[in-house]
Design a protein that fits this description.
heterodimer; A: mainly alpha; ABC transporter involved in vitamin B12 uptake, BtuC; 11 helices; B: 323 residues; mainly alpha; two-stranded antiparallel ribbon; globular
Chain lengths: 288, 323
Amino acid sequence: MTAELLLLQLANGLSFGVIFALIASGITLMWGIMDFINMAHGDLYMLGAYGVWLSLVVGVASFWLALPLAVAGVLAIGLLLRFTVLRPVFGRAPLQTLLATYGIGLILQQGVLATFGPFSKEIPFPVTGQVTLGPLRYPTYRLVVIVVGLALIVAAWVLIQRTTYGIWIRAVAQDRTMTAALGVPVPRVYTVVFGLGSALAGIGGALAAPLFGIGPTIGADVILLAFIVVMIGGLGNYVGSVVGGVLIGEVIALGAIWLQPTEAYLVALGLLLVLLLVRPQGLLRAAR
Amino acid sequence: MSAWRPGRRTVLLGGLALLAVLPWLGGPYTTLILTAALALGLFALSYDLVLGVTGLVSVSHATLFGVGAYGMAIGMTRLEAPFWPSVLLGIGAAAALAWVIGFFSVRTAGPGFIIMTVIFAHAVESIANVWTGLTGGENGIILAVSRVALLPGLDVRFTAGSRSAYYVVLACLALAYALCHWLVGSRLGLILKAIKGNEPRALALGHRVGVYKVVVNVIAGALAGVGGMLYGLSQGFVSVDLLRVLLSIEVVVWTILGGPGTLIGPVLAAILMSLGVDYLRSVTHQYLFAVGAVTLLVVLVAPDGVGGLIDRLLGRPAPAARS
C-alpha cells in the first residue's frame, strides 16, 4: 500500500462522509427537535437519486438542473407526507412514528420497484476529469460533492443557529410546551424541520447517484450507516452527526483498502459499540 | 351484555381444541401454512414479554428468531451435529445475541435503545445477505430431516405439511404460553411491569432496571429462537427472510393489534395476520404494499390495538396511545 492510495482513500472518505452527514443530520434533527424516528429517511435519499435519474431520462439537459428538480421533488413528497398521513403522528411516542414511517418507507420502496423495476440505474458523472491536489490526482466530481455537501451542511447549520426559525427550532427542542405557550407556531416548526430533513436526504441521494448507482433498495442499504452515524454523533446532535458522518466515511473508505464493504460496515458498527462502552452519550454531548 | 362470561381457562381450552382439529379440515398445504402461523404465534408471544410486559421497544426480535433457526440449521447441516445439540446451539445463539444487543442497547438513554436495536437488526441482515457460504442467502439452508427423534420412542415426521409437525408446534406454543403466563405472574414479571409502568420509580425502588431489560430480552430471545427453529423445521428450510427487519416490524404490529401485555392477543394477531399475508403473497407480487399500508394504518387507526379500536367505536373512553 502506497501513501498515495492512503491519501486517495482519505479524500474518498471525506466524500462518503459528506453524503452520510447529509442523511444523518436530517435523522438527528427530526429526533432532537420533535422526538421523531424517521425510518423512511433512507427512502427519501433513494427518491433523491431516482429524481435525478428520472429528470435526465425525461430530457432535462444537465445534472445541475436535475439536482434541484430532484430535491424539490423529494421536498414536495416529504411535505405531502407531513400534511397527510404523518400529520396525526407528530408528537406521538417513538414507537408510533417508527411504525408509521417504516410503513411509508416500504410503500415508497415498493412503489419505485413497481414503477421503475428492480434493476439498478446508472447516470454518468456530470463533471469528468481530475484535479491535481498536491501529490494527488482526484476525480473532480468527488471534489464537487465534498464542496457542495459541506456548503449545504453549513447553510443548514446557519439556519438553525442564526434565523428566527432556528431560534424557534431550538426552543421547541428544549421545551415544546413552554415554547408553544410563548406563541411560537410549533406545527410550522415541525414543517420546517421535516422539510429541511427531507431536502437534506434528497440532496444526499442526488449527489450520491453518480457515485453509488441507483436502485430501489439503496435507501435501506444506507440507513444502517446513517443510524450508526447518528448514534456516534449523539442522538439529536447536529454537529455530532456531521463529525460522525465524516468519521464513518473515513472508516468505510480506509476499510475498502483491505475489506469487503460489509466487513467495513462491521468495523463501523464495532466503532460504535466501543464508543458506547466508553462514552454512552455519543462522541459529542447529546442534545439533551 | 349477557350475564355469562366464559373464564379465561375455558376460552383457552376451547381455542386449543379448535386449533387441534384445524389440520383435519384441509389438506397438507393448509397444515403447512397453519404450522408456520403457529410458529409465528410463538414468536409474537415471546415479543409480548419485551414490548407488552416490559414496555421495551425492540426492533431486532426477528433477528433472534432467525438466528435461532440458523443456529439449529447450521448445527444440523454444516456441523453435522445430532438434533438436540443443534437445537441447543440455536437457543444458545439466539440468547447470546439477545444478550449482546441488550447489553449495548441499554447503555443508551431512552430512544437510543430503539435505534440500537434497529442498527443490530440491519447489521445482522446485511451479514446474512452477504455471507451466503454460511446462510445460503435467499435460497437458505435446506433441512433434510424427515424424521426427528424428539424423545426415545417419540419420532416426529417433519415432512412438509405433516400433522405431527403441526401438533409438535402447537404443543410448544401451549407450553410457551404457560411459561410466559407464569413468568408474568412471578416476581420477575412484577418488576418488568413496574419498569413499564414507571421506570424512574422502579429505579428508585432499587431495581437494577438495565439488568432486567437485558434479562427479559435474553429470555424472549431464546423463546423467539425456539419459534424460529420450529418455523424452519416445519417449512423444511431456513432462509434470510426469517431475520429481516421487515419481520421485526411485523411482530411489533401484531403485538400492538393483539393488545400488548395480554400474551394471547399478540398470538392470535400473529396467527391471523400471517395467514392473511400468506394469502396475499399467493395472489399478488405486490403484497408488501399491503404490509406497509397495514403498518401505517395501525398507527393511524388502531394505535391501541383491535381492543382499543372496538372500545373507541363503541364510544368507550380508550387510553391515550402510549409507549
